[in-house]
Amino acid sequence: MAKKPRKQQSGGTPATVALASAGTAFTVHSYDHDPSSPSYGEEAAEALGVPPDRVFKTLVADVDGELVVAVVPVAGSLDLKALASAVGGKRAAMADPAAAERTTGYVRGGISPLGQRRRLRTVLDASAGAHPSICVSAGRRGLEVELSPSDLAALTEATLAPIGRS
Predict the structure, then answer these.
(1) How far is 163 from 71, CA to CA, in rounded Å?
(2) Which of 8, 77, 135, 160 is most buried, with most CB under 10 Å away?
(3) Among the residues of the chain, which ranges form H helices?
(4) 122 near 68, Cβ under 8 Å?
């Protein structure tokens, strides 16, 4: 019996393993990460030749004491007030980077909304729905995964809301 092409061999990340286990269609894109790059997301968009509004960054925020994942286009920024509102909270602030890394199991610049050590509540910016596919971190700097926004939302049980700012 032939193997499915999306099955991960050794070296897969928790994100790609989660996608393969779910039977989700996806494409992995890799590039040489430059540690001196000021923006992981913009670096990914440029390296992959993908418009920045189709590459989404994964940010971890603290909303009223609860860590929440926000997935927004790299071309913009996160509206913390809108994120808090989307999850029924009052106040949001960016999470402590060490807490984000410890909770998700990923390093900063490589945090994926998929395959996290402890699944966090996730909010996906509504602009994702305007694209047939988007790119998000595959769990390592220099590694992106491309998939449909609806598959990402389903796998992360994400709420869709306008949480990004241009």
Answers:
(1) 8
(2) 135
(3) 14-22, 40-48, 80-86, 97-104, 149-156
(4) yes
Collapsing DSSP to helix, strand or coil, 161 comes out as strand
The per-residue pLDDT for 28 is 94
What are the tens digits of pLDDT across the range 92-130?
999 999 999 999 999 988 999 999 999 999 999 999 999
Over range 31-35, report the average pLDDT: 83
Question: Is it the case that residue 43 has pLDDT exceeding 50?
Answer: yes
Q: Rounded to an integer, what distance in angstroms lies between the CA atom of residue 83 and that of residue 66?
A: 12
Per DSSP, 105 falls in state: S
The single residue listed with the structure tokens 């994942």 is 69
Indicate if the alpha-carbon torsion angle 115, 51, 54, 81 is positive or negative. positive
